[in-house]
Amino acid sequence: xxxxxxxxxxxxxxxxxxxxxxxxxxxxxxxxxxxxxxxxxxxxxxxxxxxxxxxxxxxxxxxxxxxxxxxxxxxxxxxxxxxxxxxxxxxxxxxxxxxxxxxxxxxxxxxxxxxxxxxxxxxxxxxxxxxxxxxxxxxxxxx
Length: 143
Fold this sequence. Notes:
It is a single chain. The protein is mainly α. Helix content is 70%, strand content 0%. It contains 6 helices and no strands. Helix 1 (13-41) packs antiparallel against helix 3 (61-83), helix 1 runs parallel beside helix 5 and helix 4 (86-93) runs antiparallel to helix 6 (114-131). The protein is globular. Mean pLDDT is 83; it is low at 1-7.
């Protein structure tokens, strides 16, 4: 235990499996939440700075589901950041950008240019590289 916070064993396969399952949940909550939110927002009138417009938009079931999924994403990400370093978590959650491009193309009919696909491939390569590192990269004071 460091300070008031327990240190999870980096070498335990259960901890690593739990971390990657939570990471998968974070990525899916983010991608599906954004997809649902985008789908719902395409079916409401354009937004202004009037708060009533936002309340009306939240009545759309897809917008509401998107909001709930993004709240779940935030809570899961908070838990994940309590288990692993930001330098490990943030690049790996970048896989959500890949899913966002795929979902946008498949479900929303968005055009994804070759430059976007190349960027997506670079993100995937970077996340694969980061994914091969330890969950905790340091044991600094105050952790």
